[in-house]
Every structure is written in C-alpha cells, then in structure tokens.
Give the backbone structure.
Amino acid sequence: MFGDIGGLEVVAIIVMAIVIFGPDKLPKLIQDTMGFIRKIRSFADNAKEDIRSELGPEFQNFDFEDLNPKTFVRKQLIGDGNDPLGLKDLKDSVDIKSALNGDSGGATRTPTASVDFAKAAADPGPALSVGERPPFDPDAT
C-alpha cells in the first residue's frame, strides 16, 4: 500500500506533522493513532474468529488470504507444492532475457523446449477451395 513512498517523502511528512501539530501534541497524536490501529486490528481478528466459528469445525484451517484472487489462482494452478501442469519445467527451460532480446541462440536451456513457434505460426494449413467455408471450432470462441 505504501510501497511507492520514498525516504524523502517520509521525512517531509514528519516535518509537516511537527510544524502542523507542534512537538508537544505530536506524541499524544501518535499514541492515539496507534491505539486506533490496534482497535481496528483486534476488530478484524475478532471478525475472522467469529466467521471461523460460524462456519464450523471443517473450516477451522480456512485462510482468509486464499480469497485474494492472485493467491487463489496460484493455488489452483500450482497446487500445494507440486506442479501438476509442469509450469516449473517450462519456466526453467526458457531463458526469458535472451527471448526478450531477440537472441535465437540462447532462447532455450534444454533441447525439450526447442519448438520453432514462428514456423508453426506461419503454416496456415491446407488451402480452401472456392466456396468452401473454413472449419468452425465452437470451443475456440
């Protein structure tokens, strides 16, 4: 959330806070703000525990971070440590830097990934006769 704030901006915010609130009121303001954050966190933790208790014993290990779409998709595709789709082998076999630079010599690390995609994409297949409709694949649309 605050990953794009640099050190200079943090120093500027601190200096502005000292100027606006003064050095005598600033510690009390920080203390009140931290107390408010603690209350919000405890409220969220209590809400999570209430949801877990209402769902029942089969959902005691339910992790709320799994509701994040990135985490959900990653868990569904990769699983719990195993790699059912072979994505790790694919990632290890392709050298991304050389592929992005356009180097054809170092594009692959292993001979298993030596498919010539440009040649496969250039082959349009058999020619159609006059009046013949191209094949329709309902799964492709």
